[in-house]
Specification:
Layout lengths: L6 H28 L10 E3 L4 H18 L24 H14 L2 H28 L2 H13 L1 H5 L4 H4 L3 H14 L3 H15 L3 H22 L4 H29 L8 H6 L22 H4 L13 H13 L3 H17 L4 E4 L2 E6 L2 H5 L14 H28 L3 H6 L3 H19 L7 E3 L8 H8 L5 E5 L10 H9 L6 E2 L11 H8 L5 H8 L5 E5 L5 H10 L3 E6 L2 E5 L9
Parallel strand pairs: 5-6, 5-7
Antiparallel strand pairs: 1-4, 2-3, 7-9, 8-9
Helix pairs in contact: 1-4, 1-5, 2-3, 2-4, 2-21, 3-4, 4-5, 4-8, 4-17, 5-17, 5-19, 8-9, 8-10, 9-10, 9-11, 14-17, 15-17, 17-19
Length: 586
């Protein structure tokens, strides 16, 4: 078979690709501007704090290392030694790791790899929403506007420290595939739907769970209102779903195993603190140029960044127009219903109104009974689906405005057409003005960055560990508590592990292995014999004491009283031998 490729074919394909390249380029430039100075500092700094960022930097680097050295032990990360499947104590971030992998492979810089994955998430997320909205409205300006809203709304900048929360590119594609399946129930669209849902689960458990709720709501609408699909269509969807579960099973297995020994669920009480308050819809991040100061009184008392949900006035106005005048009406009402339901789900199990717990139960209580949702601590992240719905409604709104403008131009007399600018120019300016207003509402730059040592700037003790030829485990003191700000100290140990890859008894994740908190309590009594016995019980070969993290009197006491043999010293970092034969000679 001969394949002929003409210049006309090349031009035709280029014409199809060019708008997508322009859209991606536009969103990329917006990302650079709105996250400034994140890009120029990407190789040696993280955004805002060193908690989740350093923990997830480790996860992305470990996944690359596991894929290239021992992929069958992907979840057996080095943290929480000797715990099996330790990567599964938090989200595995497999898809973001693919974005980070080329950078990690070329540079060996885990901070740069993490920041690149985070920055790329913005244009990819916006482009996915653009694809959905353009398919629904048939309008490029409307699609671009939806991408702007969904990809860059203020809440997203509060999540810069968590790559999985800004990597929201799968929900629009999943819903788009489902809508296509409902109009053309082929194997292709059934597989695309489940493929994107599985990919979403390998990116963020939260996002996939909330997207599944949205998809279920859409199919309930389809079943009750349209009734276009027959038994054969649902059979295809079911078989494709079983295939998706087969693909997902190896990645879900470690979580299933750990759930038998660890408490992989949250009770109602802690979830309430991470649920949205009614006033949160009026709260913008403090860094936001337009609304940060204005909403400060509303924001007062909110301890977590999950509470700044204000979507911007421009998006709300256009979404209102879309709800009233958008076409086709069936799709508008479908996304309107999804926006309403997801806005309620954001508030979690019990309604909180302006700081007061009302005691009014909400539908999220039903979701909490399901296995996956009982592992979700932050219901307010349901705002991702609410904002996707709002972005699509705003796209319908802009499409309606442009349609009105086109109809008005068509009704002009020949004399009016000669005196007034034409439809294309006017429509372009309307779309640009709408985009400019919304982009101005979303500016939160400059973002705060924190320098992080990389390469040869990493503390000497970790460079020494990297030079040790065999594989063994270490434990680092102080062992920080698992709750409160103190746990952030552990993330530095985790990050530096990317330079030596020895087993690390310490760890910090969403959930903790059984017995870890008791080990932390025992380690706090070091150098008492029970503490040393507990630390030796982990199987670690060396104990690293970070003297600069203790008050001077306590540091001197620890060094004087410890019975362990000193192996190496690097400033205030001292390496002790935990081996039973490694007692210091009197």
């Amino acid at each position: 078979m001969t394949v002929r490729w003409s210049l006309a074919d090349a031009r035709r394909h280029l014409d199809c690709v060019r708008p997508w390249l322009l859209a991606f380029s536009t969103y990329t430039l917006l990302t650079i501007a709105l996250t400034w100075p994140m890009l120029p500092r990407a190789a040696s700094a993280v955004v805002r704090d060193t908690g989740d960022t350093l923990q997830q930097t480790y996860s992305l680097a470990w996944i690359w290392r596991a894929f290239t050295t021992d992929p069958f032990h992907l979840y057996d990360a080095t943290i929480f030694y000797p715990q099996r499947f330790s990567l599964a104590f938090s989200e595995s971030l497999l898809v973001p790791s693919l974005l980070a992998a080329p950078v990690q492979a070329l540079t060996g810089n885990p901070i740069l790899a993490y920041n690149v994955a985070t920055l790329l998430a913005f244009p990819l997320t916006a482009l996915a929403a653009c694809a959905l909205a353009r398919a629904l409205t048939g309008s490029w300006p409307a699609g671009l506007l939806a991408g702007l809203i969904y990809g860059f709304y203020p809440y997203r900048f509060d999540q810069l420290t968590q790559v999985q929360n800004v990597s929201s590119y799968w929900p629009p594609l999943t819903l788009w595939a489902l809508l296509r399946f409902n109009t053309a129930p082929t194997w292709r669209w059934a597989l695309v739907f489940w493929g994107t849902l599985v990919a979403g689960a390998l990116t963020s458990l939260y996002s996939a769970a909330f997207t599944a709720v949205a998809a279920g709501l859409f199919q309930l609408w389809e079943l009750l209102a349209s009734r276009r699909l027959g038994g054969a269509a649902y059979l295809r969807l079911t078989i494709a779903g079983l295939g998706g579960l087969v693909v997902l099973a190896p990645f879900a297995y470690p979580y299933v195993v750990l759930s038998r020994s660890a408490a992989f669920h949250w009770s109602i009480e802690p979830m309430i603190g991470f649920s949205a308050d009614l006033k949160d819809w009026l709260s913008a991040p403090p860094e936001n140029w337009l609304y940060g100061r204005v909403t400060a009184p509303v924001r007062a008392g909110s301890l977590f960044t999950q509470h700044n949900l204000f979507p911007g006035l421009g998006a709300l106005v256009l979404a209102g127009v879309g709800l009233v005048a958008g076409r086709p009406r069936a799709l508008v009402w479908r996304f309107g219903l999804l926006a309403a339901v997801s806005a309620v789900m954001v508030h979690g199990p019990v309604l909180i109104a302006f700081g007061e717990l009302t005691g009014i139960p909400l539908p999220y209580l039903l979701l909490h009974r399901l296995p996956v949702f009982s592992s979700i601590r932050v219901p307010s992240r349901f705002v991702v689906i609410a904002m996707l719905s709002l972005a699509v409604l705003a796209a319908f709104g802009l499409s309606a405005v442009l349609r009105w403008r086109a109809e008005r131009v068509q009704r002009r007399t020949p004399l009016e057409q000669g005196l007034v600018p034409g439809r294309t120019v006017t429509s372009t300016w309307i779309a640009l003005a709408a985009g400019a207003v919304i982009a101005a509402e979303y500016v939160s730059a400059p973002v705060r960055t924190i320098p992080v040592p990389v390469g040869t700037a990493v503390p000497a003790v970790y460079q020494w560990l990297a030079r040790q030829p065999d594989q063994f485990a270490i434990v680092e003191l102080p062992m920080w508590p698992t709750k409160g700000d103190a746990e952030l100290g552990t993330t530095w140990y985790i990050y530096y592990a990317t330079y030596h890859w020895k087993g690390l008894v310490n760890g910090r994740t969403t959930f903790y292995p059984p017995g870890y908190e008791q080990l932390v309590e025992s380690a706090a009594r070091f150098p008492a014999d029970p503490a040393i016995v507990a630390l030796r019980g982990t199987g670690a070969r060396y104990l690293i004491l970070h003297g600069d993290l203790y008050p001077p009197p306590e540091r001197e006491r620890l060094m004087a009283l410890t019975p362990l043999r000193e192996v190496a010293r690097f400033g205030s970092d001292i390496v002790y031998d935990l081996d039973l034969t490694g007692r210091r000679q009197p």
